[in-house]
């Protein structure tokens, strides 16, 4: 069945309103999304308190990682819960596409992602003293994109889980290899050829590079734009793949 463009937009925003309504009654999840990255940044600043210059180096890199991980965990569990409860089955019986449904999730969680990015940016720059050579609004944009990337990864991987516990189990398999290869410990250009190739195919690499460039390079450079474009491309690719792999119910 062909769905007119206007109805597609209404479907996306109706889904977003429904998800935001659910989140309004789940203050624990909202607190997790908004507060956990800030708590981790404070803890990181505290850890590096006695090591001059360490927070200035590691803070911007991890600034892009924390929102990604938090949103990945929330999205994967929330989507699987709706499939287990039969909500997805009922929704997909309506004249809507799977991609429209996922876009509704992106709009809803995108509101929280922007709020999360704003709070974390204000805390990091205004309170914790993280220095940013580039425009602060770019740091906010990068953090929001990283959170949405985590959301898209969570929506994609949730299709392969049968239970909420299994969805959580996928987090180490999806996140830890990226965490090790994204440049936090060794710059990708200094890695072995095979590892460098793997690092170049992982979205977290570009998320870390983008926030690092914003912290160290004044202005908007072509390399920064390339990193942000790569994060956006991975985000869109995960959403499209998620639309193909989304299942109505858990067998």
From TrEMBL:
Q: Where in the cell is it found?
A: Cell membrane
Keywords, alphabetical: Antibiotic resistance, Cell membrane, Membrane, Transmembrane, Transmembrane helix, Transport
Major subcellular location class: membrane
Matching InterPro entries, A to Z? ABC-2_transporter_component (IPR051449), ABC2_TM (IPR013525), ABC2_TM_bact-type (IPR047817), ABC_2_transport (IPR000412)
Membrane topology (UniProt):
Multi-pass membrane protein
Q: Which segment of the chain is annotated as a signal peptide?
A: none
Q: Membrane spanning segments where? A: 27-48, 60-80, 101-130, 136-156, 168-186, 228-246
Q: Does the keyword Cell membrane apply?
A: yes
Domain ABC transmembrane type-2 residue range list? 24-249
Pfam entry (one): ABC2_membrane
Q: Does the keyword Manganese apply?
A: no
Spell out the family assignment given in the record's similarity comment: Belongs to the ABC-2 integral membrane protein family.
Which protein, by its recorded name, is this? Transport permease protein
Q: From which organism does this entry originate?
A: Lentzea atacamensis
Q: What is the lineage of its organism?
A: Bacteria, Bacillati, Actinomycetota, Actinomycetes, Pseudonocardiales
